[in-house]
Amino acid sequence: MNNLYTSLAEVYEAMYKVFINYDEEFELYYQLLQKYNCHSVVEIGCGTGNLAHRFNEQGIIYTGMDISGEMLAIAKKNNPACSFLQARMQDFVLAAKVASAIITGRTISYLLTNKDVMESLLAIHQNLQTSGIVCFDFIDANKFIPLIGNDAVVHTVAAGNKQYRRESFWKVNLSQSWAFDWLSVFYEEGKNGHLIKIGEDESTIRAFTKDEIILFLQLARFTVKEIFHRPSYAFDTFLVVAEKVDNRNSLND
Predict the structure, then answer these.
(1) What is the band of 5 on the pLDDT scale with cuts at 50, 70, 90?
(2) What CATH number does domain 3-140+208-250 carry, 3.40.50.150, 3.30.2350.10, 3.60.21.10, 3.20.20.140?
């Protein structure tokens, strides 16, 4: 598992609260759930649970799911009224089926093989109610992969009385799918701008073309309801909404 979601979980919590506007993130998914009349949701890749209380306060029956115990410990501490589950996307089982599943934070990018993508979508299908909705964002391979260069991408964040710095290095990895290797080095800025290294994280991330995602969803017995570009931190992304279908013949062409 990536260091960012284990030993660096608290740094993740501090930095991503600044990187991502969670009010806007919540409003996007909440409006989609309202549009499709969904009153329950599992958030896959919930991380430290920054959306949890927002759904709960709006009367949505919420379950947060993540593979990282360290991230979920923070989520549970910050959201004692919400339910959380530690599980993998590929084979999770909920206590009761839900009306919707959202995969937030481009978490689908960690599914590097087609087998993992299919198993995850099939697991979601099994855990959704009839005509349930799945919604997720993904990195647009056509836009992002050609732009990858050798220069470091730097982000700085003030969190509490601390200043953090992250230097990211991206490198195309064509050994599997439209992937890239992502090295992040994290620093805390001391007095006079002195950088104190606090950790690093290295992972391989997958981008997708729109046609790939549509095909995966069709094979997993979903029909695409809408798909659109959305502004996103760091990457060009699409957001897709698809509906569970039980009759394979009802899939869209």
Answers:
(1) very low
(2) 3.40.50.150
Cβ burial of 37 (10 Å; 0-12, 13-18, 19+) is exposed
Better-predicted residue by pLDDT, 71 or 161 = 71
Question: Which residue(s) pair with 54 in the sheet?
Answer: none
- Distance from C-alpha of 237 to C-alpha of 207, rounded to nearest angstrom: 9
Rounded to an integer, what distance in angstroms lies between the CA atom of residue 205 and that of residue 116? 13
Q: Which residue has the tokens 């089982």?
A: 93
91-148 pLDDT, tens digit per residue, is 999 999 999 999 998 999 999 999 999 999 999 999 999 999 999 999 999 999 998 9
Give SS3 for 161: coil
Give the sign of the dihedral formed by CA 115, CA 46, CA 126, CA 134. negative
Q: Please give the Cα distance from 229 to 66 (Å, whole number).
A: 25
pTM for the predicted model, two decimal places: 0.86
| Assigned CATH class of 143-207 | mainly beta
169 membership: H or E segment, kind and range: strand 162-173
